[in-house]
Amino acid sequence: MVKQGVVPEDLNRPFFEAANEGRLVIQNCSACDRLHFPPRAACDRCGSGDNMEWKQMSGRGKIYNYGVVYDCPVASLKEDLPFNLAAIMLDEDPGILMYSHLPGVPADEVPVGGAVQVIFEATANGQKVPEWQVVT
Amino acid sequence: MAILISFDIDGTLEVGDPPGPLTMEMVRIVQDKGFLIGSCSDRPPSSQRSLWEEHQINVDFAVAKHLLAGVKSDFNADAYYHIGDREDLDRQNALRSGFEFLWPDEAAAQPWFLPEK
Amino acid sequence: MTTQMAPESMYRSTEGLGVWEHRGKVASVGIGHSPTARRWDGRAETSVGALSIQALRTAIADAGVSPDQVDGLVLVPVTTTGAHWPEDQPVPMDVVNAFNPTDDPLDGVGQLSAEWIIKNMPELTNVKFTMYAPGCMSAAIVVAAQAVGDGLASNCLVLKGWHNLEGRYNHGGISASDEVPGSFAISPGRTLWGAPGCFGTALQFAQYCTKYGKNHDMMAPFMQNSRRNGLLFPEGYWAQHRPEQLTPEDYLSSRWIAKPANLFDNDIPIMVAAAYLFTTADRAQDMAQKPVYILNHASSRGVARSITPTLEEVEAETAATGRKIYEGAGITADDLSFENMYDGFAQFHQFHIEGLRYRGMQPGDALDFYQTDISIEGPNPILSSGGNIGSGRSRFWMHTDCMQQIQGRAGARSLTGVKPEIAVSGGPMPMGGNFTVWSATPD
Ligand SMILES: [Zn+2]
Q1: At what angle do helices C349-356 and C199-212 cross, to 10 degrees?
Q2: Those residues with Cβ within 8 angstroms of residue B50's Cβ, 6 or more apart along the chain or in another chain
Q3: pLDDT grade, residue B88 (50/70/90)?
Q4: C253–B17 C-beta distance less than 8 A
Q5: Beta strand C179-181 with A5-7: parallel, antiparallel or unpaired?
Q6: Which chains have 3 or more CB–CB distances shorter than 8 Å to chain A?
Q7: Residues A67, C260: contact at Cβ < 8 Å?
Q8: Taking burial as the number of CB atoms within 10 A of a residue's CB, which of C8, C23, C176, C234 is the most buried?
Q9: Interface subset of A 46-65, CB within 8 angstroms of C
Q10: CA A102 to CA A133: how far, in whole Å?
Q11: How far apart are CA C143 and CA C11, in angstroms?
Q12: A78–B66: do the CB atoms touch at under 8 Å?
């Protein structure tokens, strides 16, 4: 599955640059020790943007739950229908969720609660994004 | 040679919403010529059937969009056509299901729909 | 006159606010609906502007007031069901000029301003208060109720119109482009991963089924009941255009959009407008219809922590919404005769009613409840309006139904298993919406 190309912006550039280097970084407010994803200008707890930094994650997570997409608005993904779309909880903080197509897992055969490991996948313009593989 | 035609409804048949170019009379003409006919639409099968009944057309099948492939295995024909107005739900679905595909305007120009002389 | 978006201070969105200061002092007395259509056919008389005028005039007449007595108008300026006017396509000037246009040619075609309404309803000679509400009728109702209570208007129209243009929901624009900005790629909701509009709800529903041991088939009685109630709603799309029941077989054999959400778990976008006339409880006594008193309004401003709301976040938020609804109205769950919480996606109606603790329900109970008698004839009616599933995407059937049931003019849809005295309606999302408590009496 080739995803649409991604053009990073200021707020999320560190996330995408790290992805190109094979690292998963998530925004963290060092004052509150609280992770944020998607990236935000200010911490949702203390309201300040002064202590936001990018923190490297282990790249391990668990599958929260999933759906199987049969009718998808994104033109470039239509030829891959149906496909899994899962929400991944980071091991560092299960309140932080990331989407995944779970490459390699047949549609609707998703082990809910199962462990996953991050990989990095190139999109149509070469920009890499995190994806997740089931740990067997 | 037996031909099977699957009609989408909305945007394809004159009774659809929006109405399409194919009239119920055209459907009757191909049926009289011995074509196998039916509908494949996002309308529930029960309402597809009542729509046909309303127009006194006794169709061979009325199925949900994702069950088109089943029509091919249920009926023996030499050629299978699906007529519809949506790229993914009709054209791609038809090709995936082993059907030939026609847009409603293309279909309306087929000689099938001309009355027998 | 410039019209402002309602300030956040008009909403009651936190717990602990006590009983609403205007409890029982504001009433709805007029209802007006336009006809429905699947899509706009391009004619002036079926434009969203024309439908809105029709709904407003009907509501005024229904209340039995003269147009010059109307002094307030609250409306939602956004009218799209998803599709916006294509930038490369000219707005049809014959339609624009069939009305008294404003500076923006899209007014009345692809959006609505208060100015356009006033210009095209010359009989409204005394409107001194206008305000915009975001999104849907549920917000406009809350704003109008607060405005009348606060004395900003005494006879206030409330309006929501919808236009539905050709094309499929969200399939154009950024979904068709080769590259997307980073913020879109990892934004909540639709992303690089191709989540359709219903995905967030489908994911919550999947987790609901996992957590409580339920399954999608258990939704069938709810869907059948909703369509049945919708077909008894003469103002609705299915009743007007395709009076077909939705059988459990139809529902369960439908194609998936994002399993566990299928085609029918999504509502159908339509063209329609509705208007209400709100007034003070005192003035309501002299009007044509039995007043329906507003006991409270409450709002949810839930924010998901990460990319999509989890079931756990939704459950916490709907429970808080339930508490706010009851606190401000000075009632408990036991006082509700019936409910009309939002359903457009079908799979979150249960979150709303579990949050309300309707009929004593706790989280995880609703799908079992759906297997019991939930009809309008029974003691535990569920969504007597039929909601969006029953009548198409308007997000206002549930409000109209609350009023009509309490006024005793719900026709074939009239509740017979309960006496309609107090009801709650509202939406849209479990994590963000506006809710109103309606009552046959002011106290
Ligand atoms: Zn902080």
Answers
A1: 60
A2: C244
A3: confident
A4: no
A5: parallel
A6: B, C
A7: yes
A8: C23
A9: 64-65
A10: 6
A11: 7
A12: no
Look at residue C370 in the predicted model and tell me its pLDDT: 98
Collect all residues of chain C within an 8 Å Cβ-Cβ radius of residue A123.
Answer: 192
> Is-contact C381 C375, C-beta < 8 A?
yes
Q: Which of residues 75-114 of B touch A (CB under 8 A)?
A: 88, 92
Residue B85 Cα distances to A66, B88, C257, C264, C366, angstroms? 31, 9, 19, 20, 39
A26 — contact with chain C (CB < 8 Å)?
no
Which homologous superfamily is B3-113 in?
A: HAD superfamily/HAD-like (3.40.50.1000)
Q: Check if A20 contacts C (Cβ < 8 Å).
A: no
A2 touches chain C (CB under 8 A): no
Residue C48, pLDDT score: 98
Ligand 1 centroid distance, CA of C313 (Å): 20
Predicted pLDDT of residue C14: 97
Cβ neighbours of residue C273 closer than 8 Å, sequence gap 6 or more: C33, C34, C48, C51, C52, C54, C55, C159, C160, C161, C162
> Which amino acid is residue B12, in one-letter code?
T
- Mutation choice for B interface testing from C36, C245, C250 by most B CBs within 10 A: C250
Q: Would you call A10 an interface residue with chain C, using a CB distance cutoff of 8 Å? A: no
- CATH code 3.40.50.1000 for C4-167+270-284: no
Nearest to C426 by CA among C343, C304, C337: C343
Say if strands C155-162 and C72-75 run parallel, antiparallel, or are unpaired: parallel
The yes-or-no verdict on residue B106 having pLDDT over 60 is yes
Give A100 Cα–ligand 1 centroid separation in angstroms: 27
Do B46 and C250 make contact, defined as CB atoms within 8 angstroms? yes
How close is the Cα of A87 to the center of ligand 1, in Å? 25
CATH fold group of domain C197-266+292-443: Peroxisomal Thiolase; Chain A, domain 1 (3.40.47)
For chain B, how far is it from start to end, CA to CA, in angstroms? 19
Q: Are C189 and C200 in contact (CB under 8 A)?
A: yes
Task: Judge residue C404's burial from the number of C-beta atoms within 10 Å of its C-beta, 0-12 exposed, 13-18 middle, 19 or more buried.
Answer: buried
| B92 neighbourhood in chain A, CB within 8 Å | 78
What is the rounded average pLDDT for all residues in chain C?
A: 96
Going from N- to C-terminal start, the domains of chain C cover: 4-167+270-284, 197-266+292-443
Q: Indicate if C197-266+292-443 has the same CATH topology as C4-167+270-284.
A: yes
Confidence of residue C190 (pLDDT cuts 50, 70, 90): low
Asked if C254 is an interface residue toward chain A (Cβ–Cβ < 8 A), one would say: no
Contact between chains at B66 and A70 (C-beta distance less than 8 A): yes
Could you give the residue ranges of the DSSP H alpha helices within C18-150? Answer: 48-63, 93-96, 114-120, 137-149
- The domain spans of chain A are 13-134
Q: What is the mean pLDDT of residues A113-117?
A: 98
Distances (CA, A) of C104 to C96, C108, C109, C116, C168: 9, 9, 10, 9, 25
Looking at the complex, does the CB of residue C314 fall below 8 Å from at least one CB of chain A? no
Q: Do B88 and A71 touch (CB under 8 A)?
A: yes
* C-beta neighbour count of A16 within 10 angstroms: 21
Distance from CA of B116 to the nearest CA of A (A): 41
Instruction: Tell me what ipTM this predicted complex has.
Output: 0.97
Over range B92-114, report the average pLDDT: 95
pLDDT at A55 over 80: yes
